[in-house]
Amino acid sequence: MKTIKKYRIIGLLGKGGMGTVYKAVIPHTEKIVALKVCEPRDTLVSILGIGKIRRQFIKEAVTMARLKHPNIAEVWDMDEDNGKPFFVMEYYCNSLGTMIGETYEDRPSRPLSVDAAIHYGGQALAGLARLHYAGIIHMDVKPYNMMITDEDTIKLIDFGVSKIRGEQLGGPASIKMGTPYYMAPEQEDNPDSADERSDLYSIGVMLFRMLTGRLPDGRTDASSINPDLDEAWDRFLKIASHPVSDSRFAEANQMLTALDRLAKAWEEKKAKTCALIEEASLPETLSKVADHSRLRSTPVKVGLKQGKDLFNTDGMWRPKHVVTHVFKDKGDGTVLDETAGLLWEKGGTPYPMTWYEAQEYMNELNKKRFAGYSDWRLPTVNELMSLFIKHTDPYRFCFEPVFDTTQQRIWSADKKSFVAAWYADAKLGFVWWQDFTCFFYARAVRSLQ
Questions:
Q1: Within 10 Å of residue 287's Cβ, how many Cβ atoms?
Q2: What is the Cα–Cα distance from 102 to 241, expressed in whole angstroms?
Q3: Which CATH code is given to the segment(s) 94-275?
Q4: Which tens digit of pLDDT belongs to each residue from 163-196?
Q5: Strand locations in 61-105 (E)
Q6: Judging by DSSP bridges, how do beta strands 430-435 and 420-425 pair with one another?
Q7: What separation in angstroms does the CA of 361 have from each of 152, 416, 419?
Q8: Which residues contact 346 (CB under 8 A, 6 or more apart)?
Q9: Helices first, then strands: H and E counts in the chain
Q10: What is the DSSP letter of 111?
Q11: What is the distance between the alpha carbons of residues 154 and 118, in angstroms, rounded to a whole number?
């Protein structure tokens, strides 16, 4: 079993230009962490030299360790192993890149709701405000560098190419510091010219993508793609991702204030929309019970290729067809779905847990005969997808949810491999997989006899 000093390596999380990130375990406590080792690519070593790379790597660790903010990941340890420096930081399974199903190509991704985009965008800006206050430019702001905690909080990571305000990075002009599509034009032309506004450009691109599922092209307004948006959003996004840095927001807090104004206007719009709706005027599709066959209840082990067919999802792992269900709150902690022949636990676990702990939770419910039954189980992916709401439905935010909304990401009984299982994001409406050690919620279900 591979170890790096006292840390036991249990998996590979990713490789970058300057280092490799492993999933590791702290001995005795068995706490899982992310461990980054200075293992640069040969091409980068030939260009910059190992000395400069080591200094930059150590600077990344020191920078993160010195900053204390709820939206910046913490570094807990730093050492050297076989001549290679490494540092240890907090670990989370999910990132914003995972949430939107992003690839490093100009291809459609999963659009998020306006509420989710405001939630994540605001936290990212708060983290950047703290970073910029310390005089640090991140230089690589993108969804995959935004980890999402079990409490749905953004954590900025990867300060490998960051710089101090006014610092000259040096090195050949051909080296690009950042990620295509998210990199500001001035940063792409000359990394030494990048400043706080370069990071804000990246946030503007990220928000456009969250709200539309596309990258901005400078010609298409976001409101023409997402009907929830208006001209105020278009103005905001154009300023945020303007190609000329002087035409952008001057600082993170200024951009955050503008986003807060949009958030307030969005809440007012939702309230007005819902006030005009009466039960009798609802579309028929929202008030009638759907008629469809019973959902699969037997768990399976299925990989990526066969998973889309079995779960009947599109290329972004969303259900191809969202069927309207009518749920009945029975008042005893359960919710009835007669159309699917299912009785659900209304809430679920109060805290996120590992997949094995979720299984044990089911056992405990059955031992105490929750709601009078002893055949509770983890739902299959297909059963979980029956809880999804169609996000294009204009009435979707006008009703009190029958289920507890705390449980957003929920474990399924279906396995992806011998070490991973599928889960569903009931709020954002997609399915994906993670290894058993990740922390998600569990919600029990049972089949009606």
A1: 11
A2: 19
A3: 1.10.510.10
A4: 666 555 555 555 556 788 999 999 988 888 889 9
A5: 75-81, 84-90, 94-95
A6: antiparallel
A7: 22, 20, 19
A8: 329, 333, 334, 335, 402, 403, 404
A9: 12, 18
A10: P
A11: 12
Distance from C-alpha of 20 to C-alpha of 17, rounded to nearest angstrom? 8
Q: Taking a C-beta distance cutoff of 8 angstroms, is the pair 207, 114 a contact?
A: no
186 residue type, one letter: E
Distance, first Cα to last Cα, the chain: 48
Contact 88, 76 (CB under 8 A): yes
Residue count of the chain, please give it: 449
CB 231 within 8 A of CB 223: yes
Residue 160 and residue 16 in contact, taking contact as beta carbons nearer than 8 Å: yes
What 3-state DSSP class applies to 353?
strand
CA-to-CA distance for 302 and 227, rounded, in angstroms?
Answer: 36
Closest listed residue to residue 100, CA positions, set 317, 384, 339:
317
Q: Which CATH class is domain 3-90?
A: alpha beta
The H or E element that residue 413 is part of is strand 409-415
Catalytic (active-site) positions: 140
Q: Decide: 209 and 143 in contact? Cβ < 8 Å.
A: yes
User: What is the amino acid identity at position 199?
Assistant: D
DSSP letter at 31 equals: -
Q: Are 347 and 407 in contact (CB under 8 A)?
A: yes
Taking a C-beta distance cutoff of 8 angstroms, is the pair 56, 40 a contact? no
d(CA 274, CA 323): 22
Q: Do domains 3-90 and 94-275 have the same CATH topology?
A: no
Tell me which CATH code domain 285-447 carries. 3.10.100
Of 18, 27, 415, 441, which is closest to residue 10 (Cα–Cα)?
27
Which whole number is the average pLDDT over 195-220? Answer: 95
Residue 290: per-residue pLDDT: 44
Residue 90 pLDDT: 93
pLDDT (tens digit per residue) in 34-82: 999 998 888 878 877 888 888 888 888 888 888 899 999 999 999 999 9
DSSP label at 319? B
Residue ranges per structural domain of the chain: 3-90, 94-275, 285-447
Say whether pTM exceeds 0.85: yes
